[in-house]
């Protein structure tokens, strides 16, 4: 699993207990997973289909640095499944894990569209290019 995105936990990201608000973390993961799906599916129109059970294992405090990791686990005809992990760079503890996140590539009308991919890419070659 590659950990590319890092976030700095700021005061506006905290809950009433002074720790990282789960909703903020889930928003960051959903955004990161959407970007990953866009690159893997070569389609800038993707939607979240499913997020499985979320296992919160530790937390983060103001000033902590966290990093998010994603890995594609399965390509469907129109979808991509992945796993996610978030860890605290300061305490070195895993903050959460999600075993399955599914994104679906759609067209302008929101209809699922086949993508034709079966392997992970580490390039940006799948990104659609604007037509002249």
UniProtKB/TrEMBL annotation:
The protein's superkingdom reads Bacteria
Residue span(s) of domain HotDog ACOT-type: 1-109
Q: Which residues cross the membrane?
A: none
| InterPro entries the UniProt entry points to | Cytosol_ACT (IPR040170), HOTDOG_ACOT (IPR033120), HotDog_dom_sf (IPR029069), Thioestr_dom (IPR006683)
What are the protein's UniProt keywords?
Answer: Hydrolase
Keyword Amino-acid biosynthesis belongs to the record:
no
Mind telling me which SUPFAM superfamilies this protein's record contains?
Thioesterase/thiol ester dehydrase-isomerase
Q: Which family does it belong to?
A: Belongs to the acyl coenzyme A hydrolase family.
Xref: PANTHER family: ACYL COENZYME A THIOESTER HYDROLASE, HOTDOG ACOT-TYPE DOMAIN-CONTAINING PROTEIN
Q: What is this protein called?
A: Acyl-CoA thioesterase
